[in-house]
């Protein structure tokens, strides 16, 4: 098999596939997190509190819109992995065409709506008057990057669906480096460039996304990759588009629910004052690092499950689940132990106030001890998503966040007269999500969602994709 057309995850060592496939994605997440820290330093240290507040106000809006895009591209990843695993290359091309139209169209639509409603959204969020107009200007510029960011999300999902997690990492690395270099140049106006202040960070994102996306598209065409986007055939935009939409919408809703849940819980914490907010913010940074391996293992497991379900290899899916639990459980267990044993040392990386550190320590003792539950949940959710049952994982998120976490955070914090009630609510929600996810996995109902992807005897012969696309090119 020609390696440039992805990696066959339906054969070979499952633990090796999990590690080699998830590691580039984990490195990519670390790169993105490192950039967010660097960007926060530029903004906070050199542009002042007002600029940092502007970015903070804009973040929930950006996070929600990105969540919608990533939810839709999850559907692309699932359908590409299932088609690739079943060697249904004509179906794969239909998925690429339909996803390109759907995701790019969604990015343009959300950009237009965002440009129109940005002032109303920021008013609804009670944005302070002194940063209102700068926030409107910054957010409107940043929203121009949405179609290009969505394009990157889509191509990354397609490549990962074919088992290639390295190529997205290389281009993400270039994007992060380019944005990091452009930030100070456009903020301060070095090398003859205009001095744009805070808006320079938004323009840096736009420029880097446009350039990297263009280079990636050209590279995919030069490599004759099956996921190289092109002018879609109208015949490919019917059932495949509806299937992408049907799987992607629940995943997008799930991301939005998570975003809104974060906003609600933060609002409850804010009622207990500045110390509580600062402690929650610092501890959430630890959460971000702790959740990163679990999230990336979940994405890897979703792709592995998708390919193997497409190929009809159900016993391998059970092995993927077992190995996923072993890897994700072990890593998050180590992180849990570190959070419980060394909470002060971890928190002091972000904050030094002893009162804040003390309250943050209570968070890590309660929530940090449950990180392993989060890690295991993403394994079973990965299998369920890989089967295309994104509506199920959306319902699980609904139960965990809106039936357990948010109501319990409100009730327990009021009954205890202490913000620690929020900490207990978050921990309990981990138990709820794990219980629901595992119950659905062991029920076996997720197998029905992928049953129609079982290959025929002819498809099980697994022709080389290079030969298939060469033949298709000759016919065209």
Number of domains: 1
Number of strands: 0
Oligomer: single chain
Shape: globular
What would you report as the Rg, rounded to the nearest angstrom?
A: 23 Å
Low-confidence stretches are: 455-476
End-to-end distance: 23 Å
In percent terms, what proportion of residues is strand? under 5%
Tally of DSSP helical segments: 17
Largest sheet: none
The helix/strand series, from N terminus to C terminus, equals: HHHHHHHHHHHHHHHHH
Q: What class, by secondary structure content?
A: mainly alpha
Helix content: over 70%
pLDDT averaged residue by residue: 83
Would you mind describing this structure in some detail?
By secondary structure, this protein is mainly α. Residues 455-476 have low confidence and may be disordered. It is 80% helix and 0% strand. The protein starts with 13 loop residues before the first helix and ends with a helix. Its main location: membrane. It comes from Cystobacter ferrugineus. Pfam families: MatE.
């Amino acid at each position: 098999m020609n390696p440039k057309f992805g990696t066959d995850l339906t054969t070979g060592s499952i633990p090796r596939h999990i590690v080699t496939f998830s590691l580039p994605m984990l490195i990519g997440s670390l790169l993105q997190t490192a950039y967010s820290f660097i960007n926060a330093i530029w903004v906070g240290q050199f542009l002042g509190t007002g600029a940092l507040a502007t970015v903070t106000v804009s973040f929930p809006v950006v996070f929600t819109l990105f969540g919608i895009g990533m939810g839709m591209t999850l559907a692309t990843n699932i359908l590409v992995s299932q088609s690739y695993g079943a060697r249904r290359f004509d179906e794969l091309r239909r998925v690429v065409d339909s996803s390109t139209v759907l995701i790019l169209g969604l990015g343009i639509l959300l950009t237009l709506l965002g440009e129109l409603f940005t002032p109303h959204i920021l008013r609804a969020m009670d944005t302070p008057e002194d940063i209102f107009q700068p926030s409107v200007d910054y957010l409107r510029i940043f929203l121009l990057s949405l179609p290009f960011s969505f394009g990157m999300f889509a191509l990354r999902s397609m490549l990962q669906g074919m088992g290639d997690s390295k190529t997205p990492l290389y281009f993400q690395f270039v994007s992060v480096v380019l944005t990091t270099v452009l930030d100070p140049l456009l903020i301060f106006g070095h090398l003859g460039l205009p001095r744009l202040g805070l808006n320079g960070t938004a323009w840096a994102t736009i420029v880097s996304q446009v350039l990297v996306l263009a280079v990636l598209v050209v590279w995919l065409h030069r490599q004759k990759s099956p996921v190289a986007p092109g002018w879609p055939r109208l015949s490919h935009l019917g059932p495949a588009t509806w299937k992408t939409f049907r799987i992607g919408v629940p995943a997008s809703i799930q991301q939005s629910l998570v975003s809104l849940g974060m906003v609600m819980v933060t609002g409850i914490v804010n009622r207990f004052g500045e110390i509580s907010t600062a402690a929650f913010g610092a501890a959430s940074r630890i959460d971000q690092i702790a959740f990163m391996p679990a999230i990336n293992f979940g994405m890897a497991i979703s792709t592995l499950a998708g390919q193997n379900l497409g190929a009809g290899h159900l016993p391998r899916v059970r092995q993927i689940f077992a190995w996923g639990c072993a890897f994700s459980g072990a890593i998050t267990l180590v992180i849990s132990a570190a959070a419980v044993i060394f909470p002060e040392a971890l928190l002091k990386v972000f904050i030094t106030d002893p009162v804040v550190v003390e309250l943050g320590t209570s968070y890590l003792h309660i929530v940090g001890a449950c990180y392993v539950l989060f890690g295991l949940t993403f394994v079973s959710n990965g299998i369920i998503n890989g089967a295309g049952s994104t509506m199920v994982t959306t319902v699980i998120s609904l139960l965990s966040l809106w039936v357990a976490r948010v109501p319990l955070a409100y009730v327990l914090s009021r009954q205890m007269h202490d913000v620690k009630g929020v900490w207990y609510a978050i921990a309990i929600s981990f138990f709820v999500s794990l219980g629901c996810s595992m119950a659905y996995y062991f029920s076996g109902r997720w197998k029905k969602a992928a049953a129609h992807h079982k290959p025929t005897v002819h498809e099980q012969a697994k022709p080389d994709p290079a030969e298939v696309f060469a033949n298709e090119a000759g016919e065209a």
